Amino acid sequence: MKKNSKIFPEDFLWGGATAANQWEGAWQEGGKGLCVADINEFMGDLPPEERNNHNFTSEQVQALLDSKTKYFPKRFGIDFYHNYKEDIALLAGLGIKSIRTSINWARIYPNGDDEKPNEEGLKFYDDVFDEMRKYGLEPLITISHYEIPLNICLKYSGWYNRKTIDMFVKYCETIFKRYKDKVKYWILINQINTFAVETFNHLGIPSDHVDNLEEAIYQGLHHELVASAKAMKIGREINPEFKFGEMSSYHNCYAASGTSENALVALKHNQLQYYFSDVEVRGEIPSYMYRFYEEKGFNIEITDQDREDLKETVDFVSFSFYGTSNIDASGKEQRNICGEANAWGWTMDPVGLRVALNEYYDRYQKPLIVAENGMGFHEKLDESGQLHDPYRIDFYRSHIKQVKEAIYDGVEIWGYYPWGPIDIVSCSSSEMEKRYGFIYVDYDNYHNGTGKRILKDSYAWYKKAVESNGEDLK
Q1: Cα(463)–Cα(459) distance, rounded to whole angstroms?
Q2: Which distant-in-sequence residues (6+ apart) come within 8 Å of 406 by Cβ?
Q3: Position 141 in a domain
Q4: How many helices (H) and strands (E) does the chain have?
Q5: Closest by alpha carbon to 76, among 438, 441, 419?
């Protein structure tokens, strides 16, 4: 009788995940153009319900660009642009096998519709990938991670415009040709299903450019799926060894209680989360979406050529995992209280990660990558300049154990990537002091500080976990 493995594969991709817009900085250097992240204002002093980094009119975008008083942390990040050699060396010191980051689209095509790419931007990523390879690190590269050029948003209405498909495919062809011998693993669109709270960051659609923003969002998402499929076809012609992945954020909900009504609402909610991976794995639009569009009164343009293009499918499925929620028959969602919450109300649910891995694998029978998993904390150095973070060690110990359990369940998993292995600017709140890393970076929310990198206690712990291939988690 066949027995499932109880240990991590020898070639398992232990890694760490970041994004260009959250760590690079140098927002006006190297020929880079403006991207959506460059107008993500720091609003950490406001309560969450008063923050808005995600939904803008074109007038609001212009006001942010013109502002002399507002602060935009992602413009500065942790200055990886100038410190990439030091940072990659520190990450390599963890013993990891891979780094996930993104290419900032606006570094390659500053306006998105440029005739020729920006050579200085291309050269920067050449240097970054060469530095990774020097340490034997496999790049896992996200092509679009909330970094769409701002010009595409204002001039073309972002992904709502079908012309953006061609601009994205041109961008992809450029980087595929340039890095065909340096990058093997590609994620097309970061968290493609995260559009409710990342509408503008993700799709770049100014709300005053469209009559029905919700309908426009789904049209834009359809264009992203078509663009991704067309890009994969070109990529495989350039290098048949490329491996392409879909990436979602695990936003599935459990039914709040054991009624059929709650179960049905949870099912319909989860289908909308699976929509994107269903298309990118199975190569066609799932039938449940047509009822959804009809009931919403949406008129989504889907051509026969789109349906043909969508037949190009991914090699693996990846996802981010930050916890679980439940939903009742009224559609009300609530975070599952599975452990102590952090300062932002996020709770730890390691068994939920095992559930997610089994759900995705049962549905697709494709290799999986946990592309993000982490939890942010407020942290300060002690009097001796050290940072002790047993809570982070507890977090990763409990989640890695559940990844191992999923492997024993029979799930094929290629890699595990803690989010923010080095402190970077938070995606959702654009603050520096929501810290995820094994490495402390001495900047505050306003970029005050020395920028010094300091190893936390969790650094040595993760190094031991990686070097033991997940066996030593003490």
Answers
A1: 6
A2: 353, 354, 357, 358, 361, 413
A3: yes
A4: 15, 13
A5: 441
Phi, psi of 191, rounded to the nearest 5 degrees? 40, 60
Secondary structure of residue 248 in the 3-state scheme:
strand
Q: Global pTM? A: 0.96
Structural contact between residues 421 and 91, judged by C-beta atoms closer than 8 angstroms: yes
3-state secondary structure of 369: strand
**Residue 84 belongs to some domain of the structure:** yes
Phi-psi region of 331 (alpha: psi -120 to 50; beta: other; left: phi over 0): left
Rounded to whole angstroms, the Cα distance separating 122 from 131 reads 14
Determine, yes or no, domain membership for 1.
no
Q: For helices 287-296 and 213-238, give the axis angle rounded to 10 degrees.
A: 150
**Residue 418 lies in domain:** 13-467
- Strand 316-321 vs strand 368-373: parallel, antiparallel, or unpaired? parallel
Amino acid at 398: S
Q: Look at the chain and count its residues.
A: 474
Cβ neighbours of 343 (radius 10 Å): 10
In a domain, 7, yes or no: no
Evaluate whether 407 touches 474 at the Cβ level (below 8 Å): no
CA–CA distance, 431 with 421 (Å, rounded to integer):
16
**CATH number of the CATH domain containing 287:** 3.20.20.80
* pLDDT tens track for 259-294: 999 999 999 999 999 999 999 999 999 999 999 999
- Asked if 265 and 255 count as a contact pair (C-beta separation under 8 A), the reply is yes
For the stretch 63-77, pLDDT in tens is: 999 999 999 999 999
Q: Which residues of the chain have pLDDT under 70?
A: 45-53, 337-339
**Domains held by the chain: number:** 1
